[in-house]
Each structure stands twice: as C-alpha cells, then as structure tokens.
Amino acid sequence: MITVHHLNNSRSQRVLWLLEELEVPYQIKRYQREESMLAPEALKKVHPLGKSPVITDENRVIAESGAIIEYLAGKYDHEYRLKLSDVDEELQSRYWLHYAEGSLMPLLVMKLIFSRMGKPPVPWLLRPVGAAFGKGVQKGYLDKQIATHQQFIEQHLAAHPWFAGQHFSIADIQMSFPIQALATRGAGELQPHTRGWLEKIQARAAWHRAIAQGGELTLS
C-alpha cells in the first residue's frame, strides 16, 4: 500500500491528485506545519531532509515531487490515462515537469521570503528595514523575473490546451502548485489562458477528490 506522508498546505497535494487520477489505493499519514510554517521534526523519521512530499511504497522511500510523480505514473498507470504516445508531447511533458520546481518555484519561494522580511520572526527593531529591503528586492528583481515566466507560460497555453500539448499529462499535475502560487504570489493576476487552464484542472473530479482527502490549499 502506498503511504503519502502529507503535510498540510503543501506540494504533497499534487501526489494525492495524481493518485486520484490513476484511481490507485493509498493511505495518508498527516502532518501539520508548525507555527514557523516549517514541517514538523516527525517527517525526518521518514526522510532525512524532513520535507514534503514523500511517499513510501513497499520498502521504498521516495522524495521530491518530480521523482514521485514519475515513479507513480510509471508503475501504476496501467490504463495509460496519462501516458503520451507522441514523442514531442512526451518531451514537452518532461520539460514542464522539471521546469516547475527547477525554474519557477525558486522565484516564488524567494518572493514569499522577501515579502515576510517585515514580519516575525524578524526582530521588531529590524522589521522596518527588512520590509523596505524585501520590497526593494521584489520590485527590482523578483517581480520582473516572475512576470517573464508568467508571459512564457501564457504563450504556451495560448497555443496548447495542456502543458504537454493536446493531452492532459503529469506535467499538468506538476505545474498545478506553482500556478496556484503564481495566483497569490505572482507579479500580477494570472493571464487569461493560464487562468482558464487553472479553472479547467480545478473542475476535474479527481482534483475534488484530492482536495477532500488532503484539504484546501491556502497559499499567500
């Protein structure tokens, strides 16, 4: 039995969604973020880094979103629900699978960090300076970079209904979290085709089942 070590309000929601799309049985072990918003120490008993997502399957412990998604799709997609027969679509799917965490999410995490430099746990005497510094970094660098990525994604989705091309794939599952984060942490509102894609995935029955299992994502 697959066990998803699920941290609330985290990337592990994508793993639940994939398993619901594949209709593969699984169980959830739940973890709650601490006041610092970090994962609890208990997750280090599963994987040394103590991060989410992480799954256990048989005697395997698998971490990292992309690795988990590729593993589950490769092993359990017996009905070829998400597999792609077109070579170019497969290449696109693989690109966006790795782009999500390799290129886009680091910028969004940095934006989150710099947006909180005027808040606890920064010492109160330093908060005005921290807030000013954080705003400066966002305006001078991060927002411009994020806007470039938003336009890149929008242009792709204007030409293709899904990230791989004509077919829904694991790339859409992987891209769901950063685009949800873009909607709240980005340099502006989602552009029309990106917003339409997000609405489309949020209408899927498996998405709703995953939310029922793992809880709503609240990103800020």
Query: Widest sheet: strand order?
Result: 2-1-3-4
Q: Give me the Rg, rounded.
A: 18 Å
Return the average pLDDT rounded to an integer: 90
Q: Give the termini separation.
A: 34 Å
The total beta strand count reads 4
User: What general form does the structure show?
Assistant: globular
Strand content: 5-15%
Count of alpha and pi helical runs? 7
Describe the structure in brief:
This protein is α+β, with helices and mostly antiparallel strands and 220 residues long.
Q: Can you offer a commentary on this structure?
A:
This protein is α+β, with helices and mostly antiparallel strands. A four-stranded mixed beta sheet has the order 2-1-3-4, with helices on one face. The protein has helices at residues 12-22, 65-76, 87-115, 127-159, 170-185, 192-202, 205-214; strands at residues 2-7, 26-31, 54-57, 60-63. 55% of the residues lie in helices and 9% in strands. Pfam families: GST_C, GST_N. It catalyses: RX + glutathione = an S-substituted glutathione + a halide anion + H(+).
Question: How would you summarize the topology of this molecule?
Answer:
Layout: E1 2-7, H1 12-22, E2 26-31, E3 54-57, E4 60-63, H2 65-76, H3 87-115, H4 127-159, H5 170-185, H6 192-202, H7 205-214
Parallel strand pairs: 1-2
Antiparallel strand pairs: 1-3, 3-4
Helix pairs in contact: 1-2, 1-5, 1-7, 3-4, 3-5, 4-6
